From TrEMBL:
Gene3D superfamilies: ABC transporter involved in vitamin B12 uptake, BtuC. GO terms for molecular function: transmembrane transporter activity. Keywords: Cell membrane, Membrane, Transmembrane, Transmembrane helix, Transport. InterPro entries: ABC_BtuC-like, ABC_transptr_permease_BtuC. GO terms for cellular component: plasma membrane. This is Iron ABC transporter permease. Pfam families: FecCD.
Amino acid sequence: MGLITTTAAVSCIGLYCCRSAMNLLALGEKDALYLGLNVTRYKSLLLWLVAFAVAMATALCGIIGFVGLVVPHIGRTLFGVDHRYLMPVTGLLGALLLIVADTLSRALFPPLEIPIGIVTSAIGAPFFLYLLWQQKSKSGRLL
């Protein structure tokens, strides 16, 4: 339990400390550089922090599809793009999505328990297709 807590704390604190840099990087690398951000340093730091967090989460919890794709888009839609708010909201929305998916996986066909990955895929795939359709209607072409 100590390993899980330590790795989660290091990842979350490190990423949260980089939230202003992520806001600047969202403007584009050139703009972030013009605003004084050491783009190379922060890109490398963020890459390592994210890779570490994802590797530890996958190793400890397994693969649960679509949560990482769907939840940030829902958070951006509801709360905007500012990472000061988006990061904690995304964590809470991800937890809420997994609680709902776990409840559904246990309650849909008792006494059977559907794997949670199937339920999250059933929730996430239509939402992801909706995002693709919305992108297509905005630009007139897909991606």
